[in-house]
Specification:
- By secondary structure, the protein is mainly β.
- It folds into 2 domains: 284 residues, Leucine-rich repeat, LRR (right-handed beta-alpha superhelix) (Alpha-Beta Horseshoe), CATH 3.80.10.10; 231 residues, Galactose-binding lectin (Jelly Rolls, Sandwich), CATH 2.60.120.
- It is built from 10 helices and 35 strands.
- A hairpin with a 2-residue loop joins β22 and β23.
- The chain starts with a helix and ends in a 6-residue tail after the last helix.
Length: 585
């Protein structure tokens, strides 16, 4: 029992704890405070017939990956006769209440962790008068702004508010939290600029502000003043470039993850030209409006395991060290002069059609699943498992996927899903499977007859749930492009369909003039990334139907019809964005 007790308390107070918890008790005022706090949170199963510090039934459960049910006490007071509550961990329990202002009735409380519940309402400003060292509220429905009163928590080291509905500007007073090490604000609705006074947060190790609506530029102090910085996530934050230069003393920096910056084009940031970053492991600068050549000095960062520089406007030649590396790299959607070796013959569909290949008038794909027939219409199988970045070509269509899931618990080579909430009966056959991608998913239909096509995209969200659980709080958002034109921005399947597990068909028209139709889905850093677990983000598609309404045959190829050969696809649209990318996965 004593060993389990130590698992939930900081090392510096372990020596002060006692095994004689049966002799030490919690004061009545704290017992009553817990009773009231439980009612406000919606925690109904605490057993007050025993002392909350006894670590008995209902006060301590065996934790699992996300679930925790733990009240930790320090029982070293008054010669080991008095206990005080120091930690409350109630995670992944789907609590339905609100945050209790009377948490202040626990004067010795240091840590509150209510991650992955269904709590609503604001963060009580009363908490600012406490001794809290750590606040974790990830994955709830919290609203309102951050109170400046929290800046009074001068010993606060961790403030985790990720994946909520918080809004407003960040209080400048938070810059006074000199001991703050972790500030996670991603997937909220924050606006305004990052306060200049945040330059004082020199103890900061982790800074996450992805998926917000901030304005202004990335401030210099992030890479100049924060000398202890280890991880920074700024994907779809709303901020503008340029990416500032770096302080050469940031020797603990491991992750730099930035995407979808606003603002003008800029050359490669100086931070990677002059700095020494001995621990840099992940450098991901997607869609950051970078131009010019990739500097040769970037090759000196030998510790980099993941390098993503896709969706910019880099020119020149791909550096030889990138061609030779075995690490994970993505340089897709740039403008390099050379593409390396390619087995794709540069022959267009127009040339192929001149060789008597019968043009197609329809393509239908069951994305992520096997061949099925729905209402007499056959959808081709698309159950190739692929990999973290891959290009797969079927007879008359192909797909490419790029990116990796930023989670240590999710394999990168699983890009197909099977629903646990949908039945294959009742008209949902097309929606029980889906293809997903961490970042970018593109389908190509080739050797089509030049015509105007009806494009139907079939969606159903099968990774989130409905109901009053934290798994229902996930938000998948991505952009949809057809023939290079963005037709949907921040598309949310659940909002469009009216809930998880419900189907939605998005219909568009597309005018094909060169025999090839490209449908592209791209994650732009929006939506949640940690609900129900980390690594669930990026585009998802259940089925694709491309149909020329003028053609009345609508029949599969006859056995004598020559299929569209791989080499007949337009190399520019089918492989340049992928083969040129030089993905090393």
């Amino acid at each position: 029992m004593f060993i389990h007790r130590l698992l939930f308390v900081p090392v510096f107070i372990v020596c002060c704890l006692t095994t004689l918890t049966n002799e030490a008790t919690l004061p009545n005022d704290e017992v009553e405070a817990l009773r009231s706090i439980g009612k406000i949170l919606g925690k109904t199963k605490w057993n007050f017939s025993i002392d909350p510090c006894s670590r008995g039934n209902s006060w301590l459960d065996q934790p699992t990956r996300y679930y925790a049910n733990n009240i930790t006490c320090d029982c070293s007071f008054n010669n080991n006769t008095t206990c005080h509550v120091i930690h409350i961990l109630l995670t992944a329990q789907n609590l339905l209440g609100t945050l209790p202002p009377n948490l202040t009735s626990l004067p010795f409380l240091q840590k509150i962790d209510l991650t992955r519940n269904y709590l609503s309402g604001p963060i009580p400003p009363e908490w600012g008068s406490m001794r809290l060292v750590s606040i974790s509220l990830l994955g709830n429905r919290l609203t309102g702004s951050i109170s400046g009163e929290l800046a009074n928590l001068r010993n606060l080291t961790s403030l985790i508010l990720e994946n909520n509905d918080l809004f407003g500007t960040l209080p400048a007073a938070l810059g006074n939290l000199s001991k703050l090490e972790r500030l996670h604000l991603s997937s909220n609705k924050f606006t305004g600029e990052i306060p200049e006074v945040f330059a004082r947060l020199t103890s900061l190790k982790e800074f996450r502000i992805s998926n917000n609506n901030f304005t202004g530029q990335i401030l210099d102090f992030i890479f100049q003043n924060w000398t202890n910085l280890e991880h920074t996530y700024m994907e779809g934050s709303g901020l503008s470039g340029p990416i500032p230069s770096i302080n050469a003393t940031l020797e603990n920096l491991e992750y730099i993850i930035i995407s979808d910056l606003n603002g003008a084009e800029t050359s490669f940031p100086q931070l990677f030209i002059n700095a020494r970053l001995p621990k840099l492991d992940r450098l991901m600068l997607r869609n950051c409006n970078l131009i010019g050549e990739i500097p040769a000095s970037l090759g000196t960062f030998t510790t980099i395991k993941i390098l993503f520089l896709n969706r910019s406007n880099f020119t020149g030649s791909v550096p030889q060290w990138i061609l030779n590396t075995k690490e994970k790299m993505d340089l897709s959607y740039n403008n390099f002069n050379d593409t390396g070796e390619s087995s794709c013959q540069k022959r267009t569909c127009s040339q192929a059609l001149q060789e008597s290949i019968t043009p197609l008038h329809f393509v239908r794909i069951n994305c992520g699943g096997g061949e099925i027939t729905v209402n007499g219409i056959t959808y081709e199988a698309d159950n190739y498992q692929a990999g973290p970045s891959t290009f797969y070509q079927s007879t008359n269509w192909a797909f490419s996927s790029t990116g990796i899931f930023l989670s240590n618990n999710r394999p990168d080579d699983v890009l197909t899903l099977k629903s646990s909430i949908l039945s294959s009966n009742g008209g949902y056959e097309l929606y029980t499977d889906a293809r997903v991608s961490p970042s970018s998913l593109t389908y190509y239909a080739f050797c089509l007859a030049n015509a105007t096509y009806n494009v139907s995209l079939h969606f159903a969200e099968i990774q989130f749930t409905n109901g009053e659980t934290y798994s229902s709080l996930g938000k998948r958002m991505f952009d949809i492009y057809i023939l290079g034109e963005r037709v949907k921005q921040d598309f949310n399947i659940i909002e469009a369909a009216g809930g998880a597990g419900l189907s939605r068909v998005q219909r568009f028209n597309a005018n094909v003039t060169d025999g090839t139709l490209e449908i592209h889905f791209r994650w732009a850093g929006k939506g949640t990334t940690s609900i129900p677990e980390r690594g669930i983000d990026g585009p998802l598609i259940s089925g694709i139907s491309i149909f020329n309404p003028v053609d009345v045959t609508d029949q599969p190829h006859s056995s004598g019809q020559q299929p569209c050969p791989a080499s007949s696809a337009d190399c520019q649209s089918l492989s340049l964005t992928f083969l040129q990318a030089l993905h090393h996965f």
